[in-house]
Amino acid sequence: MDKKVGVGLIGAGFIGSIHADSFKKIHDADILAVMSPPPGEAQKFAEKHQIPNHFTDLDQMLALEEIDMVIIGAPNHLHCEICLKAAEAGKHIVVEKPLCINLNEADRMIEACKKAGVKLMYAEELCFTPKYVRLKELLDEGALGKPVLLKQSEKHDGPHAPHFWDVERSGGGVTMDMGCHAFQFFRWLNGNNPVKSVYAQMSTTVHTGKTRGDDNGIIILEFENGVTALAEESWTKPGGMDDRAEIHGTEGVAYADVLQGNSIQTYSNKGVGYAVEKAGNTVGWSYTMFEENWNYGFPQEMEHFVDCVKNNKEPLVTGEDGRAVMEIVFAAYESAGTGRKVKLPFRSSAAKPYDLWKR
Amino acid sequence: MDKKVGVGLIGAGFIGSIHADSFKKIHDADILAVMSPPPGEAQKFAEKHQIPNHFTDLDQMLALEEIDMVIIGAPNHLHCEICLKAAEAGKHIVVEKPLCINLNEADRMIEACKKAGVKLMYAEELCFTPKYVRLKELLDEGALGKPVLLKQSEKHDGPHAPHFWDVERSGGGVTMDMGCHAFQFFRWLNGNNPVKSVYAQMSTTVHTGKTRGDDNGIIILEFENGVTALAEESWTKPGGMDDRAEIHGTEGVAYADVLQGNSIQTYSNKGVGYAVEKAGNTVGWSYTMFEENWNYGFPQEMEHFVDCVKNNKEPLVTGEDGRAVMEIVFAAYESAGTGRKVKLPFRSSAAKPYDLWKR
Amino acid sequence: MDKKVGVGLIGAGFIGSIHADSFKKIHDADILAVMSPPPGEAQKFAEKHQIPNHFTDLDQMLALEEIDMVIIGAPNHLHCEICLKAAEAGKHIVVEKPLCINLNEADRMIEACKKAGVKLMYAEELCFTPKYVRLKELLDEGALGKPVLLKQSEKHDGPHAPHFWDVERSGGGVTMDMGCHAFQFFRWLNGNNPVKSVYAQMSTTVHTGKTRGDDNGIIILEFENGVTALAEESWTKPGGMDDRAEIHGTEGVAYADVLQGNSIQTYSNKGVGYAVEKAGNTVGWSYTMFEENWNYGFPQEMEHFVDCVKNNKEPLVTGEDGRAVMEIVFAAYESAGTGRKVKLPFRSSAAKPYDLWKR
Amino acid sequence: MDKKVGVGLIGAGFIGSIHADSFKKIHDADILAVMSPPPGEAQKFAEKHQIPNHFTDLDQMLALEEIDMVIIGAPNHLHCEICLKAAEAGKHIVVEKPLCINLNEADRMIEACKKAGVKLMYAEELCFTPKYVRLKELLDEGALGKPVLLKQSEKHDGPHAPHFWDVERSGGGVTMDMGCHAFQFFRWLNGNNPVKSVYAQMSTTVHTGKTRGDDNGIIILEFENGVTALAEESWTKPGGMDDRAEIHGTEGVAYADVLQGNSIQTYSNKGVGYAVEKAGNTVGWSYTMFEENWNYGFPQEMEHFVDCVKNNKEPLVTGEDGRAVMEIVFAAYESAGTGRKVKLPFRSSAAKPYDLWKR
């Protein structure tokens, strides 16, 4: 592709803003349009981010010929439908995590993109988070020996938008929403070795009035190469977003903390304007973060996807990866429902993971 | 009791040294004797620690009238037999963790001590570790709200003495040896609320040539009051002993790291004489600990037990606690063997926990 | 001395409470009396700490024969007079830092104690702070090579009692009050090598309405063996007491943080009852300390002084050390007044250090 | 300027590599040439970094018309001469720190660039270091109140190239080489408020066989608005580069650590390929850094300078800033030589700062 990659954003919420900010640093692409159904939302977003076109209707945006690639930042239950339409319109597709809400949808998305000859790229930013990229390098260079235990944890006090709390739209709670990060992170660290079994412990502890979904989850994966992985996810941890990982190997151990571990330690009698996502109280001590998007790897991720489209490269994270993650998510909810370790491959016709937990 | 409490040490190994050092700070007790069967070991130990009597035979030591209390620091499989003899001899008894190697033994020990009218005290030092005592105070004062998730982890690169590696003598691997710390710690933090279920993931990863036991374990407990607890144990982590805990509550979260979190950050081109237990390489950066025994709470624990004997008080941690921990350990090995969450109460006639894992 | 050492406390304020708490752990001594002039204060203190005698008059307390040793925890300008009386009464003497308010007083105190045959012990607890004791061991064992730079810093947001703010009674501000800790700490680390020169930068920044004294000070010492030492002191730092030290040597470097570096990292929506001395706001993140007295080394220090009295040993820190510290303090204020490095030995007839700064 | 900015690198050493790497991320500029006198060095560098032209002669490179801007990464004593030639050739100029080696040179450089109508930009990357930019925002937003004390420290175990150790070429030791970072950092944080006085303590401790220059320096600045600033610099600290800063304000305090504070905590039995600049031993514990150039702010700094040239904007850091820093450096060496606080403005005809110290 000689020209810059034309990008269309689908969704104008929290993650949409991150996408828009990320593209400001990418020279080989321009955001040409944003689409969001609620009246006025896309327009306001377009004005704020100086995007030339805005739509409330997906088909209208997909009709724009200069759009080469769309990014789906919509509620989970809409991913599949949007993806199928975009594929049909011949657009390359980036899907925010999780890929969709069931395995049948995942299969249809992968199939549709293959048929349409467009790329299906799965937006797992942890594979681009600079500190985690370094962590993987430490593993790959042998400094830690062979991996024994992988850990990753994401914890905050609950998501932004209402659709996360509604399992009909989200498919599940925190294990679905943030466990999916950990699962792809583990697969990536472990060279896509197949997962052998999944065990999950879930509970709804603090937000019982707000959701039927799990607000805390602990998930244990066993890989075929003998590696164990431990994911911890929470929507009930106060004090700011937490995102950390560990690799325990036969010859070493490494601890990486993306947020608190990169921040300024601050005490303020007046409070800090902004410290970190979901910081809570900032009067007194807080951990003040800088350049969050960069430290998460969002611009790097989008730059990679643009490069894949522009230069016809294979993405680092694909629809197949997103599907594999979804299989683990289903197995996790099955495990939480049965109290048993669930062996993979696991196939379920459930409409969404949550249905396997509280039957 | 008007006089000082007379103490007899059973065992002259690593933990015996900690006991001897701890008693040097306790004014209401004197160590009067040490017993260890290997020829010369007790004598050498007695000389080093200026203990007036030493024995290779238990009965001879128990015959000393001035001994009021014995401390069992022997391999796990000997705890029960020693305890029964000591009870019969009318001595108060402190048993190092774990209490014994099966539930039948536990019952007999409790029964024997009751019958003999002596105290059976269970040496879980985490209930006396100053930083963890403070952690419990934070929970009890309400600063963290109601607990949602408790975590504790102990990791190092493998134990000192050969009997730990031999499951016939130890009863199990790292989940038995160090999981028992976490289990009693959780029970104590959670006000002895009953455990509802146990799930365990175990593996033998690095020390396959050395032991059949688990060298890594992850254990999840569910309590009846809805609290989840996560224990992580390892005998494969290089870089020095790790002992840390977290409380995640509805109103707060607290992180406590007993060793690295209290240490001096040191860089040395020459290496440090001693940094911390099992420190590994100390050329370059290391975390140099101070007053380890005090920071673990060993002298405080023994002072408490002496006070219980001298002033006829109820110990903070009893044989019944040790038995409850053993029940969790059995359930953990059953779970690792079956891949299922195991409900409590759990009764097993297995001779040792390990037998439930690899059948 | 066959019996327990009988102790008399002089002063019932903040430091007096620390003394009383510290002695609860010391078996070879009993606090027999407390003296404080304000009506009712000593009585209340005695009741709280179960001390058998209380006085508002010093002479009456000194008349108690069973008192072997007194501890002076009074405002600085009273140290000398109290010391002279106590020496005359034949009591061994512990003086809280700083020793007194001028060099003439220091000489008279040392002389009087020598003449009376009583010990003059200088209470610099940093020489007993367990983490700093470990730091000195690292230096002494050679792990850090030869020292190049020593650093120590104490910072909080201002002292408890009014007399600290009044330079007539205190003799000076933060450099006098907390710099004296650093100066003795450096001398101790550096094997009492003589100080060659002193430079000081002082300012009154935040508490201008409350004191004429310095509320921030930076002091640089040069030792004859070439070591440089840097002290930083502040009465304006919010967020809780800070006490940390560093040794930079030819072969290594070590960082020790006594408070934040030993604490529990806590987030609370409700606030923590007590986190650390002068913690400020504890809603949100705070650093929750445990066993502060022990971690500062107060009981260890008093135990040492009791041992010196009971067994007629030479104290680790003496009146001569306190005088040497006072000489450095005078040189520091002279330097702040002149903008020049001041060479030692330095003799001044000024009534108090402060007079040399703002003339 | 419509076209991309054409860039010429002067110098192919350590800092030259950082420049070359930085420009790979800048879309509005291309490095068109590199110049370095040693035979073959520029050629090798050009090949490695795919730079189309390479020279051993400055005049030849300056003759290239497509070069709009040069970056001087040469030894300090050559800065002035190169700058004068480049100005005469009509090139915009970025000078690496320090600006030059005496105040006379500084004046001539500023004058020459003014006359030639080219920009003189001073490369102080700390003003672009993302974490420090955030630190300044915290100050500017008022979260910390008014500044009372600013601190910055850079420490490692000694520089790469021989010219740093030779005071004839460098002008001075660590206070010249790294103190200049701190001085401009303080000026920037403090809104370019004028410096009122400078005190400096310098010593040559470890590298006496290698240099006459100072390998340790402590420098205290007083600003006219009452702010105190403390810089600590060392060429003798083992264990990897250290770059940290603090702001102590009337309403808060903030601690920022650029390297160790952003790194992965790693233990490796085998050692890490690369941990951080000058890491020393990496067997055992180390602090593994990621994306160092970005975390220092080098690409951001160069992007800013390119933007200034392309769009004719005023640089954030100018030749005048570089001169002001040089004045502080001279005052620091004067102070180290006299043992007195030196008042600014300070003018000296010394050929280099070092001459004022050891006369």
**Pairing-aware structural class of the strands and helices of chain A?**
alpha/beta
Which shape of chain A, going by the Cα principal axes? globular
Topology pattern of chain A, helix = H, strand = E: EHEHEHEHEHEHEHHHEEEEEEEHHHE
Seen as an oligomer or otherwise, the chain set is homotetramer
How helix-rich are the residues of chain A, as a percent range? 25-40%
Chain pair sharing the greatest interface = A-D, 35 and 35 residues
Percent strand of chain A equals: 15-25%
Determine Rg of chain A (CA atoms, Å): 20 Å
Main β-sheet description of chain A: 7 strands, mixed
Distance between the termini of chain A: 50 Å
Q: What's the overall average pLDDT of chain A, rounded?
A: 97
Total beta-strand segments of chain A: 15
Give me the side-by-side strand order of the main sheet of chain A: 12-11-7-10-9-8-15
**Helical run tally of chain A:** 12
Low-confidence stretches of chain A: none
